[in-house]
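The records we work with from here on pair a chain with its fold. A complete example follows; check for yourself that the lines match position by position.
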Amino acid sequence: MIRTSSGIAVLALSWLFALPLFYPVNNLAWIATTALGVFLLSGSSGFGASRNSDRSEPARRKMARRETALTVLLLLVAAWLAPRPYGLAPLLIALGLVAIELPIPRRWPTMLGQGAVVAGTVLIAQAMALAAYTWQTARCHDLPWPLTWLLTAVARLLQVDATTDGSTVVLHTMRKTHHLAATWELFFDPATLAFAVGMLVWCAMVARRQLGPGRRWSAWIANIRTLGLILLVWLPVRAGLLMAIYVHRVLRTPPEVPLHAMNQFFSPWVLGLLLAVPVVLAWRFVRTANGQRAASPEPMPSDWSWTSRPWHLPAAVSLLVLAAALLAVALHYEPVGRRQAGRVVVVERHSAWEPTTRPYDTQWFGHDSGYNYAAVFDYLSQYYEMERLLEGDAIDDDTLDLCDVLVIKTPTARYRKNEVEAVLRFVERGGGVLLIGDHTNFENCGTYMNDITRHLGFTFRHDLLFGFEQWPYDQRYVPPAVAHPAVQHLPPTDLAVSCSIDPGNSRGRPVVQATGLWSMPSDYHMDNYHPVPQHLPEMRAGAFVQAWAVRYGEGRVLAFTDSTIFSNFCTFQPGKAELLLGMVEWLNHRGGINLRWGLGVLGLMLLVAGFWLAPRRGRLGLLWLAALLCGWAVGSVATASVHRWAMPGPKVVRPLGRVVIDREVSRVPLSKGAFPVDADGQGYGLLETSIPRLGNYTVRCTGDDVFSGDMLVVICPTGSVDEQYRQRLQRYVADGGMLLVIDSPENKSSTANSLLWPFGLSMPFDQPWQGTLTLTDDWPKLRITQAWEVVGGTPVARLGPRPVAAMTQYHKGTAMAVGFGSVLNDARLGGSWTVEPSGEVQQRYQVLFALLRELITGERPRAPQ
């Protein structure tokens, strides 16, 4: 029993490595802990008889092999369709069944197979429990007030000076007062939950195999009571122990050293070590067979056989697969509805932040040019009829009747009551509203947004979310396998710093829900209310909602909490513009038949029918589980397919120039979020963000998508250029594409010539040159310290008589080579988009713009005025 409870605890710990509940995924630790859990559960009595138990009856053995084969097939389908890491559980069960049936004359394959079957079954139950846990804590981390008082009482029993203040336990020490958030993660962490659920499942398996039908339920309920009592005693003690250790660490930290004592609450190793106590208690007090001897295997009912009723088993399996599929659709399905005309209005009234009114061009730089939505406004104009509602315009029924989607962004002034009512009536009539908020209630944005959202049942919190990555501003968001239609076309993207949403009692759905985050309250001593990222007692950690969608009347509302990522300086980084496009497109739909309740009821009816029709044999339990898993996986994949069919990406009607930044053969650092990633002077993020100033937009691409734009930019290539890539590149330019290859003597492993030779261009990598750069006779002189000469084509930039940039016509397209790329890296373009360029920095920008204009439009460079 101690080995079994330890194995279940190890499996519970494995989820802390498999999922980014707190810290990022650790694949090595996940696989190691799962393998250890399987080993500890090997030979577990939860599985039952070995493969040799039916050898006396050949007919029964033949039927058992058919059932096993069907079970394995269904499990493999579920494992193939399920997303990582959830597919591991059905795969373990399938492999375990195969190992049990293998004709190996040794006992250890059977024991390992039994361990894999038990471990897979336990992992399935734990996955369901953790999904529910994440769903709940993403909405509210705080404990109800009786439990907060309980934690305070436990702290006092441990001689800690403590009191209760709302949703926090206030701990007093000589150094400072600590407002420790009373959260579910503190009281009932996910590892303990997974262990408890795993123990209950194992006890049920043992009771089913070892006891007769009359004793199973009573034995399992007795175990539920025992485990409940263990948790009732252990959970307060566990929380008190953590609080006492925290206070001890604080007191032991020298006054001159910053406090760093919160990591114990989220460390997988600490949470796993704390499982030792419930493991020992379960070993001591949980009775697997309720003290009874194991019952003999149940005989097969005399009135049932494979030959007399051959349709019962396949019919039951089919019903269970269909029932699980319908239940999955009922849970995940989001009606899309019919598409509207696409009239989108951006509200500039009451919003002085992130304006769209001033173009993002080659003359405007600095802080305000970056925190601006002009580029993304132009991007959306490819798909929709874009308009602005300016400060002097009214927000009333007549105005709003002229649009389908209303975008309210970062308000800096309060909406009047009649304006709020007009917005709500607009939604009731079938309109869509996108609310874009920001972190920490900056400029009172959250307060003004909540004047609207409170009527819909949810609010923007006044907090800021960080990630548990090494850099707290990093947050990688990957849409789930069955995503909300608004984010179904979204590639993995990096979010910046958002607030979270309190869904309250609203009947909505999360559009963006992520784990591995921690929040801090606003710091009103800072100009932007932005707290310094540090782990403090008042932080909440785990899952949070960052985008929330609700239906109201005939219309729909979507709230998003990270306004920064749509700013000019980062909106064309991977996924960001696509995220805004997906949200607007979903809001540009109306109606849709909500079949969720009907499908759910039908699924439950089929589930009951399937179990009623199922043969009453204990050995078939895994078959029914496999049918349910397969059906759930199929239903989930079908729902995602229906979403994509119902809401494909919008069609471009007024195309802008699409400029592809190659990531197939070029690996130079580009910007991430608000910050250029300048690795030893090799970053080119500012060059990338400068291209949209000419009326284009940029995308980073690999594979075949590299050739999907109007222009391809390859910066300091180092990747191998194979023949297929070269041929595709030649066809791309020959068909009218534009190619810009930028290289530099600082690129020691350049493969630029492999790209340029087919077009009659090359860079002799024999000697770097220096001198004064000129584009025309009257161009301001710019000193260049190193550049490659460019041979072939028509020179467009020179160092004295030597061409360092040239272009050539190739069939319908154009290719340009630039040999002084280091002049255009982040360090030499000012280091940040917030810098107002002057002197040589300004000249470098003008050189870049002149080269881009000549390539795109054929316009010869003119000296800047």
In short: Residues 216-252 form the longest helix (37 residues).
